[in-house]
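USER:
Before I trust my own judgement here, I would like a peer's view. Write it directly below this note and I will take it from there.

ASSISTANT:
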Amino acid sequence: MPGSYVIATEILPPGQTTTIFDWAPIPQFGFPFWILISIFFIGCTIFVVHYWYKRSGRLNSVKGWLESLKKMNQYDIQVWIISRVQKLTIECLTTKDNVLSNHDESQIGMWHVNSSMGVIRVGGNPAVVISEDYDQNRDFLTEIAICHACDYANENMYELSQKLDESYKKALDERKIDQSTPNPAQLCVQIDSADSYDRTGRELLKNLNPVGVFIPPYNIFNPNRFRKYFPRGCSGMFFGGELIRDAEKLNVGVVAQGWLEKNILLFIALIVAVVSILVAYYLPLGGR
């Protein structure tokens, strides 16, 4: 009848009941409780993924250790790189003919592994140490020994000069040497650079330490202490740039082939195959 109302006594079909998950905490919106729970768990998942992504990003500086450990072949090696601002990163570089280079060809820095003793082992994985401003690998023990010997020689240069001169004159008197032998006291010049080390420093240290350089048993390695003995203009970038330039000179007469030139034979074979199929289809050997 018009104006009458029908009151439903059963909202759900027989045998079905509602749970707390179907409850709408905000009736104005009508969202059931299970939607809010789903949104909460999805948000937790996104938060956990973001949290661990940020945490793992802090390990990017040492990712080369794991990368080199996974590869473990002769052409990939773990490398510790010390920057001028003493920032240490661990990378995995390619080594061929004792020359280290980056996997990314846009990075032109290269280093020569000159010292076989300058190899460290981290977690059973061998590695070499390099720096940005030197094109050779770093050798901790050698650098400590040279720095200690040079510093000692510079601090006691006058006394060492007198001692060498006395030993030289004594050897002349005993006729162990002749006048043609140079006096090692003339080598007593301050060692303050790579040039002075090459001119007189190396021979001076040989005369002062004939059986080897003695160093303190406990040392804290300082990567900047040896920088004054680096040859000027011998950075890793400069070394890599020279090698790349020399390689380009060798390839001057070689014409680089384009994509079409490299694949022209494949296209010819494909065209011949398609033509053969069409000929066989439209011109069959036997009648139909």
Observations:
- The first strand starts at residue 76 and ends at 82.
